[in-house]
Amino acid sequence: MAGIQKEKKPMFGTSKKTIKEEQDEIADSINQAYIDHVSYKVRRVIPKNIMLIGRTRTGKSTIQNVLVDPRRIGAESTLYAQTKFAEFQSFIVEGSTAKLDQSLVSTNTEDTNRQVRDQQTSTDLENIQEEAVTVLNIIDTPGLFEHASSADEIQDNAAILKTIQTCIHREITKFHLVCFCASFESGINDQDIASLKLLVEFLGNDVSKNACLIVTRCESKDEAQRNTLCEEIKKDIHFKEIAHYFQKGIHFSGALNRDNWNKAQRKTLEDQFETISGYRENLIDLFSSATDPYEIKNCDFADLAKMIKDRQELLAEIETLKKKGENDEELIRKLKDKPCVIS
Q1: What is the pTM of this model?
Q2: What phi, psi does 316 have (nearest 5°)?
């Protein structure tokens, strides 16, 4: 009949999906394109500044090497320290849980709350979770009490304090951890105590909340041996004097032993690698979770400069005596032993 119109079919099919479902599909498509085709991906980094300090040949550089790669074989034993000057290197830690410093948490609270509120209603593209990774800034200091091949090359504790000054010049003004390193083989002695006291005297007692002790060359120690070692350290007459400085605890490190490697002792090396990997994971967790760094104050450097100047004047006086042929060993010894301390 002429009055009846035929139902007209729509030109395009209509979707029965909700707007949210459509957005989710679009987000999946864009996310896949991002993975497959976007060349430069940027992630937030959370830096952690770690200082390694200790007597010469205690394995500070080896700690850094093993943190980067636990497969590294320990260096050959040598009479002289490998690190002559402060070294600064940065490393990205994949797979670690990066934690913001406490001073930064409050500034991110509102952003975090907003993300939580929006999670139920927004799409993936509107609620992209920021990935953050830990960056370890390792400051490897020259060894203390280094005995070099000539008198001119002898490094004293002033070199360590100069290292801290260099840190400030590099805009490294906060330390998340100050790691005092002591070798299992040589233990803790008077030189360790003297060097630690000097550092604390300059930085202040508050640095103890960011300080830990790392016992190196423990690649062949099992859990029972480590527990025994901890008890022995705590009872040690030298350690009792400085124990309160290490509020971040006692930790261990080691490296694949070169002597075992040279003899191809497979089982020993495999056991060492398992132990070393556990030490490494513990240290990375310790570094990554540090959120309350110790801040160095520039005003302390007036005292530092005075101490270094006094030390340089003493060394110059010794050299003058030697050039004049005044080989008074007793006088030279007294000058060498004369304390240069921070007032």
Answers
A1: 0.72
A2: -65, -40
